[in-house]
């Protein structure tokens, strides 16, 4: 029993970052659904229309577009950050590689091919398309998630946009027409600019500011010039 409890504690502790943020995501998503339904029903009441239940709101295009427009901007942020930091540098930032390591680095540095270790992922030791794909898999998956969530935003956004037009006795627009609309691009760009600002702020502020014990920060006593050093 003691060993089982120890393993259980070990699992929770060793996965606490993912588990805590995953749980927080579900809680906040639920809170968004509750507040979003309340706001949506307020709008329906003003227009003299029948209000909808919680389940109907969860299946609505209004809820879907609010969720997916935030998801796509987050995945875009990580995609650009992952690929951008291969070549782009910031002196003194732990978010940057060391200045002499710009680029994809050597196979020795990346433990690929003949330099793979016994505990390296299997595809890292190959010398064909599998290595090429795996060596870029994190950025590629983020790019796919971005494109899929952006597509979902465009579809749900078109539906929500047309529902609003119908309530205003206006003709609906086609999906291609919505892709060229100000509503679609305003939803996208207002999120993109905030994500880019957050990345730029983190890169430069981490040069001079510290957070003790965080891998996103340099050690408290590290020089402002120290680059690619994590706490």
**Percent strand:** under 5%
Task: State the domain count.
Answer: 2
State the helical fraction.
55-70%
The general outline is elongated
List the helices and strands and how they pair.
Elements: H1 2-14, H2 16-46, H3 54-58, H4 61-87, H5 107-110, H6 129-134, H7 137-167, H8 175-179, H9 182-208
Helix pairs in contact: 4-7, 4-9
Q: Overview of this structure, please?
A:
With 231 residues, the chain is mainly α. The protein folds into two domains: 1-59; 61-231, no CATH class. Helices cover 65% and strands 0% of the residues. It has helices at residues 2-14, 16-46, 54-58, 61-87, 107-110, 129-134, 137-167, 175-179, 182-208. The longest helix has 31 residues, at 16-46. The chain is elongated and about 65 Å long. The mean pLDDT is 92.
Primary descriptors:
2 domains, mainly alpha, elongated, 231 residues, single chain
In brief, what are we looking at here?
The chain has 231 residues and is mainly alpha-helical. The chain has 9 helices and no strands. The model has no long low-confidence stretch (mean pLDDT 92).
């Amino acid at each position: 029993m003691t060993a089982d409890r120890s393993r259980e504690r070990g699992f929770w502790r060793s996965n606490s970052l993912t588990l805590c943020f995953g749980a927080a995501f579900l809680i906040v998503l639920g809170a968004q659904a509750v507040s979003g339904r309340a706001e949506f029903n307020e709008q329906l009441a003003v227009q003299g229309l029948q209000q909808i239940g919680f389940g109907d709101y969860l299946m609505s295009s209004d809820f879907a577009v609010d969720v997916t427009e935030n998801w796509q901007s987050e995945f875009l942020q990580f995609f650009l950050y992952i690929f951008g930091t291969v070549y782009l540098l910031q002196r003194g930032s732990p978010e940057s590689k060391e200045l002499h390591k710009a680029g994809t680095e050597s196979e020795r540095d990346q433990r690929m091919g003949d330099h793979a270790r016994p505990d390296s992922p299997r595809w890292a030791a190959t010398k064909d398309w599998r290595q090429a794909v795996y060596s870029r898999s994190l950025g590629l998956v983020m790019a796919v998630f971005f494109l899929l969530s952006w597509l979902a935003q465009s579809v749900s956004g078109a539906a929500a946009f047309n529902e609003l037009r119908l309530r205003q006795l206006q003709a609906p627009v086609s999906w291609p027409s919505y892709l060229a609309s100000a509503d679609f691009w305003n939803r996208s760009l207002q999120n993109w600019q905030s994500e880019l600002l957050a990345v730029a702020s983190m890169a430069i502020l981490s040069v001079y500011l510290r957070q003790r014990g965080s891998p996103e920060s340099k050690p408290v006593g590290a020089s402002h010039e120290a680059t690619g050093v994590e706490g």
